[in-house]
Specification:
- The chain has helices at 19-27, 31-38, 49-65, 83-102, 124-129, 134-137, 149-159, 175-182, 187-190, 221-241; strands at residues 8-13, 42-47, 110-116, 140-146, 195-200, 203-211.
- By secondary structure, it is of the alpha/beta class.
- It has a single domain (8-241), classed as P-loop containing nucleotide triphosphate hydrolases (Rossmann fold), CATH 3.40.50.300.
- It has a 6-stranded mixed beta sheet, with helices on both faces.
- The N and C termini lie close together (12 Å).
- The relative contact order is 0.19.
Length: 242
Amino acid sequence: MAEDTFDVVILIGRPASGKSEIIHFLNTLSDPIRRERFHLNLLEVLDDFPILWGWFEEDDILSTTFDLPRLHSDEDRYFKFQELWHVLIERLSLEYVKKLRDNASYHDHTTVLIEFSRGSEHGGYREAFQHLSDEILKRAGIVYVHVPFEESLRKNRRRFNPDRPDTILEHGLTDEKMERLYRDDDWTTLAPDDNGFVSLCGQRIPYVVFPNEDDVTTDKPGQLALRLESVLGRLLELYQQR
């Protein structure tokens, strides 16, 4: 671990809270600025949404083209098994382990950013973190992007593009799915303060909250940069204490 950069940042929060926009912003920066202001090396993003969407597409092919049973989801694209939420996290962990296996000096030049959302209905963050590898947790800092559910619902409606439902910045959920899957969120029961340490899976993990009730992640790059710089700066202080 370099003293002034993160090895792993876990970026979580409700759907449409601003996580993807934060990643998009960071990817527009030059390497020196991203490192000096935000303490991030070359970014490699591990996101469970492309895996999830691939399952939906496979199920559609199986059912419509081959008249075979869907493997992962029903016709309304609800998972058949609750455990599939955890399989997604296990898949991200597996991808990370392979990166370390193939490059012993991986974190000399790369920061991994792991993104996902979890509502209480499918186990919440407490359950999700049980399925992240020790290799991730011992190197990780957490950023939770906070918006009320009503703001998440509003932004989810606004960003959805039915012609590009598979894309990171334009996918969305129906209001019914948002209500069922994401209205309740267990993050504040795990980490009630704005920053500090959360004990999960035998690890003491630093965390910070990125407040986004005022939506600085939409068309406000200057405000986003200042807030993100402050939040990640505080996280680095905690990260160096672990």
